[in-house]
Amino acid sequence: MPRTGSARLLCVLIVFGVATPTRCDSSDTGYEYQTSEAEVVRALSIPSTPIKGRPLNTVEVKLGFNLIGVTELNADRGYMETTGWLTMNWNDSRLIFSPVYQEISDVRVHPSDIWTPDITLYNAVSTGVKVLNENDKAVVSGDGSVFLVQQLTIRSQCDVKGHLSAGDAVSCTL
Gene3D superfamilies of this UniProt entry (predicted)? Predict the structure, then answer.
């Protein structure tokens, strides 16, 4: 089989329990190895918190929420339902990898395959937060930084006094 630029292969070399992306040429072994980027990160991931060497055993998470809209305001039950984009950035030194090919600077993996922050809204009602797209991917860069964006529906407490009329102003806090 002639070798082309698109026929590059990626293998995972596991040494002492640490996975390292390495070059692998199918002509050397007679086999074609196909390892997806997600499998590389899955091999690197550990389900525990990435706190090694951090002060006070903490992980710094940068968090943002971009409101798309209010989908429901229920005065009788005292809650507001909103939809928006939750963005999170953090660093996990266990996910550092050295790109073998210049084209691989980051990989995309399902959030369940790596450690993710447990973010809770302090005034969420019992049904809390619902992820709208279960296929969202986290982007893991070679330096171990992780970026995750998820579209969420959040149901939070909202104490609305009295009866609402069209055009009434209401203030609710997330």
Answer: Neurotransmitter-gated ion-channel ligand-binding domain
